[in-house]
Structure to design on (132 residues):
């Protein structure tokens, strides 16, 4: 049993190979790396906006700090003697309630920081075309 060549390499019936190559190159012509509108008008293309800007990173940092503080409050409550159980230290308000609230708040801040849209860049009046 013979192997068939891959589908993309099969010859096209009724069409010479050179015409196939020309069609292939014409097919990829619209995918230029430069913007044609920018070439014709002489203007530079608009600046690309990132999904996350400096303000978002500040929120992300604040959320991480709040979460680390919450996890730090959960630490502790142990005893040096394994035969002694200190329930008041282990089940305190700080360790059970306050730290959990801080960790959940930190995660909420992270979600807001990621979902917040970046602000549009401010353009000077001269660049906007307004004359004084």
């Amino acid at each position: 049993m013979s192997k068939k060549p891959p589908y993309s390499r099969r010859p096209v019936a009724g069409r010479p190979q050179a015409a196939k190559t020309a069609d292939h190159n014409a097919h990829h012509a619209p995918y230029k790396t430069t913007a044609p509108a920018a070439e014709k008008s002489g203007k530079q293309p608009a600046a690309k906006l990132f999904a996350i800007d400096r303000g978002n990173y500040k929120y992300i940092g604040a959320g991480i700090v709040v979460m680390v503080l919450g996890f730090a409050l959960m630490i502790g409550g142990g005893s040096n003697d394994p035969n002694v159980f200190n329930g008041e230290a282990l089940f305190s308000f700080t360790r059970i309630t306050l730290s959990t609230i801080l960790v959940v708040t930190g995660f909420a801040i992270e979600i807001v920081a990621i979902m917040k849209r970046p602000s549009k860049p401010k353009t000077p009046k001269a660049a906007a075309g307004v004359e004084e």
Summary: Residues 93-115 form the longest helix (23 residues). The CA atoms of residues 70 and 100 lie 7 Å apart. Residues 54-115 form one domain.
